Amino acid sequence: MLNALSPTSVVASRAFFPPLLAAGFLLLLVVLASLLYGAGPVSASDAMAALMANGTEEAWFVVTELRLPRTIIALITGLALGLAGALLQSMTRNPLAEPGLLGVSAGSGFAVALAILLGATTATLTTLAAQLGALAGCTLVIAATRVQGLGNDPVRLVLAGATMTGLLLALTSMLMLMDQRAADEIRFWITGSVAGKPLSMLWATLPSITLALVLIAIVARPLAAMALGEKAAVGLGHHPGRIRFLITFTVALLVGSATALAGPLIFVGLVVPFIARAFSGPDIRKTLLLCVPVGPAVVLGADVLSRLIAAPAEMPLGVVTALIGAPVLLAIVRAGRMPSL
Predict the structure, then answer these.
(1) Which CATH code fits 99-265?
(2) Chain centroid offset of residue 2 CA
(3) Does the model's pTM come out above 0.85?
(4) In the chain, which end has fewer C-beta atoms inside a 10 angstrom radius, N or C?
(5) CB atoms near residue 241 (< 10 Å)
(6) CA-CA distance, 316 to 326, in Å (whole number)?
(7) What are the residue boundaries of the structural domains of the chain, listed by start?
């Protein structure tokens, strides 16, 4: 994937290496913090002793059976949402395009809630439902961008997405009224969390995420060409319609997998590309590369905060990502100018 996304002209940029290395180092620190800190009685020193094979059985169990799985799931969720946000923004030429804001995550969430209500019990069925819902939501986003004047106005597109998100959330609430047993499960899942999720859920989404990474490697160069305009992309031998279809399918795979793993998390697909683009510039290939460490770092960092803010209880991960992302959205809108894509 690295070679496909970053030809010599991309990787050779000296200015790009420091932020990439810094993001990788930050990710390592956040992973360590995730293993050391939690809302339970096992302290950071106890967890460190367990990692050094000198701790108690309780600390070893907490670190390896509770914190390690949620760390891995948070990493994959952040990777998927960060890449999906970058792809969606580049495809729509809209820096405010984000799966959570445009209804893609809400569509995925509604599909999962419907699957739970119908009795879906396996991670594979849940993942498939989430991806189909994300595909429907992503298709509606693309249709919206083709409406004259809407796709060129970032704020109006977000308002249209917010309307669709509100409708889907209302429909999800209606589903919760139909079955109390399913309602309890849906209510816990829809707030967004990686706590208590078994690694078996990750295995169910891994094939989809792997396929999505392969597709990203295929569309990265044509997507960079499309930034010059569709006519220029066609002149370079690319097919914009085919590329948009592949990106739509890729975003559905990524958002569906992330939603199945952690529930609908908003603003992650906005914050991660925004941070990455601040250091990488408008080149989508550099942005995608930088999203690889930044996305997991943002989601995992938010998960660590969710454990510490309200300890010994935990705040829902979806609430923390909203608290982080809302100021970023307001800052972009109030700036009066949109970053160029």
Answers:
(1) 1.10.3470.10
(2) 20
(3) yes
(4) N
(5) 9
(6) 16
(7) 1-27+267-334, 99-265
